[in-house]
């Protein structure tokens, strides 16, 4: 049994969750772990001097729990409740991949935490320009809600900081333009994963 661990990281509102869900429908034996499920409760998240809750940093997340969950999945993906029947219209490239399990891990801060970086087979990073990201963010409702100035004061600066760190330290990251259509992004990542599956089978 082989496992393929795919990271789908990047900017807030970049389309990570949508892309992950669509890939799950198209790939056999595929499961998703979402970083958003590992946020600490609001009472444990630090507040800065401007009153902003610091959610867009690693300290706001139970990262060690996340690593444990991924490792647990890797040990026994079949027992995680992953759906093992082939998706409808499975293309010929995917036949005979019953012994390969795919985990898509999606989240905004995946590649700046060393213990996670040992686990990836492929890493994707969705980007958006500032204006588009701010526009999309303004249409979403968060719990707790974004306070005035939160995007410019915390969310965007943290994205830029972590993206710069990533560019300095990481190789083998595929950057994706989040302004492209969902179909384009899906097609690009899907065909890439198919190549990885082929390599695994060789």
From TrEMBL:
GO molecular function: ATP binding; metal ion binding; nicotinate riboside kinase activity; ribosylnicotinamide kinase activity
Example of a GO cellular component annotation carried by this entry: cytosol
Pfam family, one: AAA_18
Alphabetized CDD domains for the sequence: NRK1
This protein's UniProt keywords: ATP-binding, Kinase, Magnesium, Metal-binding, Nucleotide-binding, Pyridine nucleotide biosynthesis, Transferase
Keyword Transport (UniProt): no
Record family assignment: Belongs to the uridine kinase family. NRK subfamily.
Name of the molecule in the record: Nicotinamide riboside kinase 1
Species: Nipponia nippon
